[in-house]
Amino acid sequence: MVFQLNAPLLDGCVLAVLEQSDAYGYSLTQRLKQEVDISESTLYPVLRRLQRDGCLTVYDQQFQGRNRRYYAITPSGRALLAECRQDWADYTRRVAKILSGGDEQ
């Protein structure tokens, strides 16, 4: 069974990867693909939205004669990530309770 990532959860996943280190779009997609089904066409609108909302900054860096656009998490992005982590913990606790037949895990 495959569960779909909604926008807030995808935002949290992107921010969590970028918390570890800055990344350019393709490498970020590859890192996320190791765990979830995502395409570059899905990722770039998320990156633009997070940048517009002040959660990411971007910078260009030369690589083999071409510019790569790198994404870096900001303090606002770290705050949103902390909120996502708390919301995820609460949500998974409630779902686990339902799936276990009402017993607290």
Task: Explain how this protein is built.
58% of the residues lie in helices and 17% in strands. By secondary structure, the protein is α+β, with helices and mostly antiparallel strands. The protein has one domain (7-99): Arc Repressor Mutant, subunit A (Orthogonal Bundle), CATH 1.10.10. The longest helix has 25 residues, at 75-99. 19% of the residues are buried.
Task: Just give the CATH class.
Answer: Mainly Alpha
Inertia-based shape? elongated
The CATH architecture category equals Orthogonal Bundle
- How many separate structural domains? 1
Order of helices and strands: HEHHEEH
Within CATH, the superfamily carries the name Winged helix-like DNA-binding domain superfamily/Winged helix DNA-binding domain
Q: Please give the oligomerization state of what you see.
A: single chain
Biggest β-sheet description: 3 strands, antiparallel
According to DSSP, the number of beta strands is: 3
Fraction of residues in helix: 55-70%
**Regions with pLDDT < 50 over 5+ consecutive residues?**
none
Distance, first to last CA: 22 Å
Strand order of the largest sheet: 1-3-2
- Distinct helical segment count: 4
Task: Report the portion of residues in β strands.
Answer: 15-25%
> Which structural class should the secondary elements be placed in?
alpha+beta
The CATH topology comes to Arc Repressor Mutant, subunit A
Mean pLDDT: 92
Q: Would you spell out the secondary-structure blueprint of this structure?
A:
Layout: H1 7-20, E1 23-24, H2 25-33, H3 40-52, E2 56-63, E3 66-73, H4 75-99
Antiparallel strand pairs: 1-3, 2-3
Helix pairs in contact: 1-4
